Amino acid sequence: MIERARSRLHDAGLRTVVGAHAEDAHGYLAGRDEDRAADIMAAFTNPDVAGIVCLRGGYGTPRLLDRLDYDVIARNPKVFVGYSDITALHLALTQRAGLVTFHGLMGLDLAARPATQAEADARFFTWEWFLRAVLRPEPLGPLPARAPWQAGPVHTVVPGTAAGPLAGGNLSLIANTLGTPYEIDTAGKILLIEEVSEAPYRIDRMLTQLRLAGKLDAAAGFIFAEWTDCQPEAGRPSLTLEQVLADIIVPLGKPAVAGLAAGHGPGRLTLPLGAQVRLEAPPGDSGPPRVMVVEPGVVD
């Protein structure tokens, strides 16, 4: 996987350095905590490294948060890209080091070998939006309302207009950091949420936890990305995900949209967390919502 990912990056004219412990394993973790943290710090302090692309998600990034030196990282800002379990690192790097980080493509995406035209289209979409986000010092502008693999476009959950820095990522990791020094700051922000392999009742529980912690009230608006493999469990009574949002999100009265291509689907957008985003969610059949990134994630 590593060599295929490197080859893809080399094709774009990017040189690569692989972390010393990138191929380690420690049970269900990608190596021991001290080694994984050391690789992250080595990448941030290496003057020849301009960006860090995580290889994959999984489990265990919260174990690294108190092992990183955020003052050193703040003095050595880099592009940092990943999603899923990487959400915990996004939260910490944004809040403790003041970085804009990128919710998007990982090495696993780069290494994938498409078997169908649909998979090839998803890979192309992911690659193009990655390059736009991390190599061009300009705002991404309006995001696509529908990706090639999606059955329908982004739609309004709660109408209205909101703007603020983008924050968030995977719901489980956001909830996991509550009550720690690294818990998400949602004040005045557009909260991005996605999830994979969680039944509606568990999504309900995590959203309720965020509500009770004041995180939903503090947000300016919401972008619900893809819910992948989040169907009700067979043989059990369940609310739909739409009903969960109707019960928890709609009463807040804050602008909200759902369906953005930024999750565990076949492909994904790369989005700058910490950059300014504008959300326009018209009511009813007044037109499709618009999500616009109005601030660049990188500078010259």
What attributes does this structure have?
single chain, 300 residues, alpha/beta, Rossmann fold, Glucose Oxidase, domain 1, 2 domains, 8-stranded mixed beta sheet, 4-stranded mixed beta sheet, 10 helices, 12 strands, 19% strand
Explain what you see.
The protein has 300 residues and is α/β, with parallel strands linked by helices. 32% of the residues lie in helices and 19% in strands. The protein has 10 helices and 12 strands. An 8-stranded mixed β-sheet has the order 4-12-11-6-7-8-9-5. A hairpin with an 8-residue loop joins strand 11 and strand 12. It is globular.
* Lateral strand order in the biggest sheet: 4-12-11-6-7-8-9-5
Q: Roughly what fraction of the amino acids lie in strands?
A: 15-25%
What fold name goes in the CATH topology slot of the largest domain? Glucose Oxidase, domain 1
Helix amount: 25-40%
What's the SSE blueprint?
Blueprint: H1 2-11, H2 33-45, E1 51-53, H3 70-75, E2 79-82, H4 87-97, E3 101-103, H5 107-111, H6 117-135, E4 141-142, E5 155-158, E6 160-170, H7 171-176, E7 190-196, H8 200-212, H9 215-218, E8 221-228, H10 241-248, E9 256-258, E10 271-273, E11 276-281, E12 290-293
Parallel strand pairs: 1-2, 2-3, 6-7, 7-8, 8-9
Antiparallel strand pairs: 3-10, 4-12, 5-9, 6-11, 11-12
